[in-house]
Amino acid sequence: MLEPLVRKILTIAIAGGAMAILLRQCRKPAWWLGRLIVRNMNVRHARLTNWGLSHVPLEKSFTMLDVGCGGGRTIDTLASAATDGKVYGVDYSPASVATARRTNAARIERGQVDIQQGSVSALPFPADMFDVVTAVETHYYWPNLDADLREILRVLKRGGALVMIAETYRERRMDWLYRPVMRLLRATYLTVDEHRALFERAGFEQVEVFTERSRGWICVIGRREGSSSRPGYRTDVRSRPRNEGS
Q1: Given this model, what pLDDT does residue 89 score?
Q2: From CA 181, how far away is CA 75, in angstroms rounded?
Q3: Cβ(211)–Cβ(243) below 8 Å
Q4: Which are the contacts of 226, defined by CB distance < 8 A and separation ≥ 6?
Q5: Can you give the pLDDT at residue 234?
């Protein structure tokens, strides 16, 4: 009678330990497991990223930054658009940086891409540097969303845009499935209105919120003051959500 009980306790302990390791890897990939996870993210987030980026113009001469660059797939996409510009990536996980550098090795060698280890809370770049900053599936884990968005605002040029893309948001379709997972991940889980308010508190203007309801995706775009003078950007945007999809 004691033996089955011991086996059950051991099974639960092992499962709990495995879950804890996986959750830590989602927040900060490390070692060989972390490299596997970020390579999987490169594939899994491709359609989400392409959908999000379709809402913002990307010009050939742009200087762009991907925050929380993971495995580097978004950097490759941005660099394909900015053929006469330069794309930077930053991630606080050494495993992610290593994978992203391998993904973009040829572009790094040509000088078109630069990937560094660092934090969104203290970006290693001067002010007024970037035309576009992207953040794909990463803001859930940022230490201080308000302060971190202000740090991104600092490195944006006047008229530049932050594009935040995520595969889930609070009150999305089938939200009840996602809430417990986000709690386990200790992730910030915001509604559409909370995303918009976050951008506005940080000082972004012309905030747009796009959703793909059938998939539960969200894309939030905010611009630094002065965006009305930028070619290619709309000047009649209102700070309200726009919904796409069914």
Answers
A1: 98
A2: 28
A3: yes
A4: 158, 159
A5: 35
What the block records as the tokens of 215 is: 């998939």
Q: What are the structure tokens assigned to 44, written together?
A: 């899994």
Q: Does domain 2-244 have CATH number 3.40.605.10?
A: no
| DSSP symbols for the chain | -HHHHHHHHHHHHHHHHHHHHHHHHHHS--HHHHHHHHHHHHHHTHHHHHHHHTTS---TT-EEEEES-TTSHHHHHHHHH-TTSEEEEEES-HHHHHHHHHHTHHHHHHTSEEEEE-BTTB-SS-SS-EEEEEEES-GGG-S-HHHHHHHHHHHEEEEEEEEEEES--TT-TTHHHHHHHHHHTT-----HHHHHHHHHHHT-EEEEEEEETTTTEEEEEEE-TTGGGSTT--S---SSEEEE--
Contact 161, 222 (CB under 8 A): yes
User: Domain boundaries in the chain?
Assistant: 2-244
pLDDT in tens, 163-217: 999 988 988 878 878 778 777 877 888 999 999 999 999 999 999 999 999 999 9
* Cα 234 to the center of its chain, rounded Å: 23
Give the pTM. 0.77
175 versus 229: which is more confidently predicted? 175
